[in-house]
Fold this protein.
Amino acid sequence: MTTQLEESTDLLQHLIRNQCVNDGTPDSGRESRSADLLTSYLTGPGVEIERYEPHPGRASLVVRIEGSDPKAPSLHLCGHTDVVPVNEAGWQHDPFGGELIDGTVWGRGAVDMLNVTATMATAIKRLITSGFRPKGTIIYTAVADEEALGTWGAEWLVNNKWDLVKSDYMVTEFGGARFGLTKGDGAKLPVMVGEKGSQWTKLRVKGTPGHGSMPFRADNAAVKAGEVLARIGRYRAPTRLQDTWYQFIGGLDLPPLQRFLLTHVSTLQPALDRAPIGIGRFFYATTHTTLSPNIVHSGVKINVIPDTAMVEVDIRTLPGDHGAGVRAMLRDAIGDLWSSCEIISEGDNTPTESPLDTPLWDALAKISADLVPGSKTVPMLLMGATDARFFRRKGVTAYGYGLMSERIPFDDFAGMFHGNDERVDQESLRLCGELWERLAREFCG
């Protein structure tokens, strides 16, 4: 009989090898391959599995273990099956090989978030095969399209199958990587209680067409766009320290001086400059609205000076920053070239956050302390977006969590999201599997 760890490892390897790469286009992802895999794995007597495919190939699964008491708290374990594109040249091993090397599984999605999707599935299977009958309903979803906008996955389920996926509480990606800044006793494990919003913006940079053989004093939109990119890249939005930030830093048990430096606007930036790069990036992103110019297009022919260039800026917003305020930041960043720019489109995805004083927080803290003796959970704001936002907006208390071993410190963990050499060790898979099963049994039992 295979162990939960063996099944989690094998399932994760197969999910990686399915190559459900989501490039943002409707026909990418092809998550139906992983939906087939998980259906085969979870199918058994009395198992209630629903499959939805709102666009060809974009399939999501919903598995329910019905509770006996309608008044008992219900729990939703939510994973996704798609992954982001990869540049294979930057990897030590095949990004879609799912190789197990020295107790570590390598591959795109190993951290984001196929490890959680796999270990949640093995926990659900153990609950089912053991005959567990909870008081509160338990839901497991493996959804498509999280790495784009959730259009064909979580958002579609919330809008079209809400009665099937609604719950009181939810856990999805991600946290639980141990911090290296702390000097106190025991690991400090971040729980993502909220996430930033996004205001993705597309700009048109305007110039004047001309012949490529005569560039002197030309009004070249591509050259202007290059300067616009540089200015946005250098821009630093005002530091904004939220309540969650103070609670997070307070929970790390840092030395007084370090705690002071990280909780005052005037000293935060120098402190982050001295921090390990992964932690510095993460901490900066959770205390600032950020502007990152990531896509640029210009030109139609090599001998034609372009009259337009398109620049797309990934803007991630803190609570309180949106709309006109963000546009003002963009205008400040671009400066005197703003008159040459035109906003073509901008998103409006507002930040979301869940409270801390909940039974779910207490359960996660207790189980984590049992599995990682001496550990302490601390709240944190996630700089990216997850499917939790759709559920928070419907009143669900949603956290991002997981448990990473000592082999994946937070600095390494943060650097692997959408990066090279993504990997997860088997001890982390064991911890996650035990976390989800115990949470379901103790919280809903």
Notes: The mean pLDDT is 94. The longest strand covers residues 308-317.
